[in-house]
Structure prediction request, 849 residues.
Amino acid sequence: MADTEKIIEIEVLRYRPEQDKEPVPQTYKVPFTDDMSVLQGLQHIKDFLDETVSFRWSCRMAICGSCGMMIDGKPKLSCKTFLRDYYPGGLRVEALMHLPIERDLIVDATDFVTKLESIKPYIIPKEPRTLEQGEYLQTPQQRDMYEQFSSCINCMLCYAACPQYGLNPKFTGPGVLALLHRYNADSRDGGSAERLKLGYADEGFWGCTAVGYCSEVCPKGVDPANAINQNKMNSAINYFTRFVTPGGADK
Amino acid sequence: MEVFKADVAIVGAGGGGLRAAIAVAEADPTLKIALISKVYPMRSHTVAAEGGAAAVTRPDDSLDHHFNDTVGGGDWLCEQDVVEYFVAHAHEEMVQMEHWGCPWSRKEDGHANVRPFGGMKIERTWFAADKTGFHMLHTLFQTSIKYPSIKRFDEHFCVDLVVEDGRVQGAVVIEIATGEFRLIQAKAVIIATGGAGRVFRENTNGGIVTGDGMALAYRHGVPLRDMEFMQYHPTCMPRTGLLFTEACRGEGGLLLNKDGYRYLQDYGLGPPEDKPRNKFMELGPRDRLSQAFWHEQQKGRTIEGPFGSVVNLDLRHLGEAYLRERLPQIYELAEEFMGIDPAHEPIPVLPGVHYTMGGILADGKTASSLPGLYSVGECSSVGIHGANRLGSNSLTELIVFGKVAGIEAAKFAKSVAISNPGAIEKQAEAVQARAFGLVNKSGGTERIAVLRNEMAKSMESGCGIYRLGTTMQETCDKIAELRQRYKNLRVDDKSKVYNTDWLLAIELGYLLDVAEAIVQSAIHRKESRGSHQRLDGYEQRDDVNFLKHSLAYYTGDGPPRIEYGDVKITKSKPGTRAYGAAGVKADEERKKQGAAHG
Prediction:
């Protein structure tokens, strides 16, 4: 894995609101070995070439969700994207698309977090249970119904990928809709009616135009497009059954 | 400066901080909670915990077993009354997490499943595949959204605590997005900022694990306890130090040297058997496994890789389907970061710094010696880890003592009033001026990364798996030198918006203070115990002189003053710490003695 050091050019789209009117590219020559991630390249820049370059990172192992950015135009986690794959041509890194740039590679996550908070992302118990009664029983098959959708690391790559979110920032967006589905699909939960009301709005599931790029860029295999599709189906069924079922229909 | 008036402020929003916030909110919904974190809560390092969380669950397990595994695993440096509380409350907290939606892995009958972990007599580790910390953190974060009294200050960096009238009364924070300062006035403060693994070079920790809260409490006179005990995790990725969970071995993974030999049998952990056996071989405790690696390296029986010596973690016999189900993240790490398919090739691994056993001195109810100040989690030393933490006790610690911290802080907050708001604001202004001083000063020549790298290298050489008085002294000298050079730091970035250069400079100050507490506590402990192993005439455990907690007190510019405190023994007298067949024999002897005595 280790080999002789090579040099790669990393072009960083800089934006410092206190001095830049608009984002400007700046190129750095970074020595690297084949095991190094793009994040490690950026860390080299910050440590030894230019302390002012700003980006978020922490875990280095694709689980904290901090280090998403556009790498050669594609939304990726910089910690699990490797410099060797861009050699000798070099690479260009920019802040995630569709989200306001705060500075350099750092985007404003407020909209995402506000949406996440709005969809009641917690168990609304179907049958409340005391601690003395022990855990809810949930078979591995029941767990499989939502497990995939619970694996979202909130990295927002799917927001950068979603053309609909780019056009209409009111669209709830793939990651948060996947989370909504995660709770609706949990056998312990009884809050789907409450949540689906949110999902019915134009900004919810029906805002999605089924491009599917969100699922392609997801670094954790969450497949938000699938979650959205299942809910379009559920809400359509619900819409029609409410005319034939006394008192309307739940999910 | 903008002032936010809280009843309880919590610094750190990982597992411990979030659990504490929920506990305050449930204790009294009228209490205003300020939950401060330098990152969005779901980025906190709890997210990276993989293997699981311990709680007695099976009918053949018992609280005594969990207690004995913990206390023996900690080489008898645990607060035994606190361990008793811990093991008794672990299960209900797992169930609470389950009610909040944590996707625990299940048995076919729908009950939560448990897996074996190192140093554990009976399987008791609750798990959510190999992303347990991730799932616990997201569950707690999402659940916390239910409580309107929790006001989050995401991406707010804590620069100091405010102590007035002999008690803590708030925290001063920087809003990272704007560089603006805020005073969070509070009647009680809980520190939940995590460990300090980043003082070392090769480590499993995220970049944010910089000992912030430890340093803050320490600077305000609260001692740091048992800081010499740093846990090396035996199975980490070469160069990056990323973690391959102990669950790899819990599920049946083997450790092999260059001859394909299960070398742990040579270090009192055998005999080897085909199937994993609790407390034998690969299921020994972390300190012993890391020490065995060191010996293999000395004997020339490790494999020389591009990033130093390694051994092989062999999972091949478990098969792809099982690995994908039980260890999906490990599979992904091996494939994507190393180009290795663990179903077909062994994974090269080596020990790396993983966990800070010591921390802010806390009593069994998380209170520090400074009135109003509480701590929980890796930053805290509530007393359950002793000289070596048992794998899967730390996630449980977050929720058991997070709840305690919340309840205790709420109680304290209701018993006092803010005493002198004018003086508090004045203090906050002074804190702000000091923090600005770091960035506005001119003429500095030292670079952050240079000092940080020198520190990490020196800590690795002085406070590694095995330690010598001479190298520890070199590290003491080096850290003292770096603390002087820190005063001459140059911060290039002068802006206010997301000035991470500035924050890194402040973090480096935290790291250096904590590093000094670690190495000074280490050099004063003239014995070998748990993760603190010496090779210079102090190879044995010395219960006569060192069945004591070390306490490092901040003294300003100089090295800390090291004092010692008693260890609370309730029902387990210090005995032989043994694993494998020797452990079975030691257990039998203890039983016999116990029967004879009583």
Q: What stands out?
A: The domain at 443-566 of chain B is CATH 1.20.58.100 (Methane Monooxygenase Hydroxylase; Chain G, domain 1). Chain B has a mean pLDDT of 96. Residues 500-524 of chain B form the longest helix (25 residues). The radius of gyration of chain B is 23 Å.
